[in-house]
Sequence to fold (227 residues):
Amino acid sequence: MIMEEKPQQKILRSVENLINSDRVLNFSDGVFAFAATLLVLKIDLPALSPVEINSGRLSQELLNLWPQYFANIVSFLIIGYYWLTHHAIFTLIKKFDPVIIWLNIIFLVFISFVPFPVDLFGDYSNSQIIVIFYCASLAAVGLLLAAIWLYASGNHRLIEENLSGRHILYYSCRFLLAPIVFLLSIPLVFIDPLVAKISWVFVLIGIVVINRAFNLKKISTIDRETI
Fold:
């Protein structure tokens, strides 16, 4: 006996059919590009008169902006890392539903917010409160991105059925790595903000460790290109 779909199921199916994956990804890429571009615009130019510029003070003022350069480079790399992770997740996702769309929109809201803590971090890189705020902001972005994956992969809700549990665990560890590192660096700020900043290198170390721990030699070609 064939059971008829409930009205709610029919509505949900019609909504899913209206969702265009290309538009979702193009919009997401646009927000990433906006956030990355805005980082550069957050670097404050030195306000010097023509006389001061000719006197050689310009070189010193540009050198004094190194905290802003540092914040810009680190944040650009992190945004790039999150963009690659976002691309990997949506490569593995094979269908969409309203929940995944709204999770993605909320994630993009936080991505567009990143230039603000970056601006503060560039101006007050040794302030404990600012460094904590910076770490918390980047951790929140990473956790939202991981939430997209955890929702999509739960019970193979939106991903391929043949993706093994080992692969799902591998991706979950990869996607949770960066936000966990930023969260764990927050207590280090109270020791010394510099120690917290140095700890961010564990994102790179963690990637190597996870790859060796899982030793997944049969990852598909698509996965290798996107992760």
